[in-house]
Please model this.
Amino acid sequence: MDVIIESLPQYWDGFLRTLFLAVVSGIIALVVGTLLAAARVSPVAALRGFSMAYVEVVRNTPLTIAFFFAAVVLPRLGVTFQQFEVAAIIALSAYTAAFIAEAVRSGVNSVPLGQAEAARSIGMTFGQVLSLIILPQALRTVVPPLINILIALVKNSSVAGAFFVLELFGYGKQLANDHGDAVMWVLVGVAFFYLLITVPLGYVAHQVERKVAIAR
Amino acid sequence: MFARFVVMTTQVPGDALVSLNAVNKHYGQLHVLKDINFQVRKGEVVVVIGPSGSGKSTLCRAINRLETIDDGDIAIDGKKLPEEGKELAHLRADVGMVFQSFNLFAHKTILENVTLGPIKVKGMSKAEADKDAMALLERVGVGHQAPKLPAQLSGGQQQRVAIARALAMKPKVMLFDEPTSALDPEMISEVLDVMIQLAKEGMTMIVVTHEMGFARKAADRVVFMADGQIVEDATPEQFFTNPQSSRAKDFLSKLLTH
Model:
């Protein structure tokens, strides 16, 4: 156990980096995922096709491949980064956006068709129908699955540790190397700091679910 | 172009506000609208009746392009219905629509339901939209419900709000797609009263309904549809007392005996 106490500065640094990766990628993924979902239900066939292809490809390939593309392939194509964090954020948000798009789309489908018809019949454009009528109602059903996706994102960010980003898992590997006799405690410490992010997220999901239940 | 209009004696096609010419629509194999020619003049109240599956709802929904058509054309106030996009949205703002299932925005208050269109589509100020909306809600008898959510209102009240929501856009024509079919009997009259009042004030209305009382009281014309075709187009007086086709006679006899 001592190893956790004496490595607290590393843990803390890793924790903050994991949190940073998760928050930034989460926000980008929410925006991109919602746009992908909007494209998926739009009247423009090309947008629908693009969104569908993107979601199918990204959702059905391992995250490691997304990281590999962002960290290795993109720089070879001339897109270089000062820090590997940027590559990690690109990979995580591109990957998570596909899942968010699917969750939002299912939420959009849960809103009765009549809501969109009524909105269109008073002259709203597609964008207005979506942003003013459909998405606010879809949000209620989408929050629990979205939180699940965000929890997965927090844990998925550990892959960044294998791509030269010193986040929680990266530090975990380093500490495990340095303290070969206390690997178990090192990992318990890593797990604890992940829980510090994911458990509150789950709690938020629970609260939102309760609130929505009352509002219905 | 109007040579087909032999049955339509009450028409003056020249000043049609709503005009359908040779409109066809299929659902797969099913031919739901068969070569529909149909004109509505400004200020006219047209009731569309017919057995279920006759295409009357589809006709109503095609007029603001909630249903697309296969061929033919539809024009509102001389302007052809455009394809999907901003232009279509503008045109829809001129065509009020009232649905069977009300379709009030579930997450908005009654007042917001009515003001949303004027504010977001017409760019009206909130204060002005609120004032207009309150006047409309008072007019349909639900002014005191303004701060509530739709789910807290009865069906009849919700439908009257839906009428107010459509009127708030100051439409040129109002479409009613079976507005009372989802209502309990005692709520039907409160909605019909609002519609009759609207008709008296000179609103152009196309009403798909099973309420023959409304047709007799408020309609200028009754259009009878069966199997995707307009079978009769007459005044209520003519239609109810002296229907021409056997389809209409059959339909009316079923109504009267039950």
Q: What stands out?
A: The CA atoms of residues 61 and 95 of chain A lie 9 Å apart.
